[in-house]
Amino acid sequence: MANLLGVAIFALAILISVSLHEAGHMVTAKAFGMKVTKFFVGFGPTVWSFKRGETEYGVKGIPLGGFCKIVGMTAQDDDVDPADEPRAMWRFPVWKRTIVMSAGSITHFALALVAIWLAAVSLGLPNPKFPTNDAEVRQEPAVISISDCVVPDSTPRDCAPGDAASPAAQAQLRDGDRITSINGKPINNYGEMLTSLRALKPGDTAQVGYVRDGQPGQTSTVLAQTQRPPIDNPKGAVGPVAALGVALTITTPTRVTYGPVAAFGATGDFTRELAVGTVQALQRLPQKVPALWTAITGGERDVDTPISVVGASRLGGEAFANKAWLLFVTLFISLNFFIGVFNLLPLLPLDGGHIAIAWFERARSWLYARIGRADPGRVDYLKLMPFTYVVILIGGVFTLLTITADVVNPITLFPR
After folding, report:
1. Most buried of the four, 297, 344, 388, 404, by CB within 10 Å?
2. Active-site entry in 22, 192, 318, 361
3. Residues of the chain with pLDDT under 50
């Protein structure tokens, strides 16, 4: 039940954000004096509407997005009343049309930024100092958790009869102890602990210094044997090495909460990372199509494959049911940022396509004026329709693939 409620809440949040996208177009268009005749949430048959001034507002039967109708978006619009010609959008300066067409994406960015700031001061944002690779992990303090045994080979597995007992456990070390020295050599981090252990041989006795609850201690133990590659060459040949029978406990927090002022800087840093990730995700879209088809036809679903609004809502439901609030908010942030960027791509029928054409017209008029030729006028959108249909077809097929994959083989972050 909690999962379904989470799906509904996330889907509603998406619907509201898309409706605000259209409201961004409407508000800026009205502010510049353009005529807006319709603003609706959803598509299909009208469920309810009212008219205020020259604009009809309402709700459609299919709650998938929304739209607003601005008179004369292109010079080829043939449904413009002669009395409205002076207020047709295409007659306005290019900078005003750019603001109107980009207002939808700006709204998505604004929603994402506000959500990031709120997360920074309440839930916390991912800690940029959290270790993400071997080199960073080895710089962590040598805080240990005790293994039940020492597996004699290099393949991780559960303990089996005959495996050596953990030397650390035999030495009465405990989870949460921080190793500070081995045979008198100071240990400042996990990497130095590994280096010191590799300098010894299986069967050697190690004098281990540690700190527990702020109090220093000393113990000794006989090291066991396991198989590992060289520290400086993780892909090298494995060989026998000394083992203490411990694992690293990462003490660096996974997230950081900020004060109201510091949260602005953290929001900027997080947004930069999000922008880079979004661009990289867009670049990977074509190569992910085979992986989506594999998922649809019964193969394993790659967690790095794109998801539709259906998939995002399902993940939002999972996050809600498992009280993973930061994940819930991060999904909302990422989706809004992605939609904002995607809509600015210079392709019709996207907003970015209209912006690109407007500036092309402006640049072409400027160039023709400089070379003494007559202004060629507006771009004929009708001639661009074949390209527009290709974009719509590709987008439709890709959307169908992602929705199908999200229904028949969805990504799940909380396996049951």
Report:
1. 344
2. 22
3. none
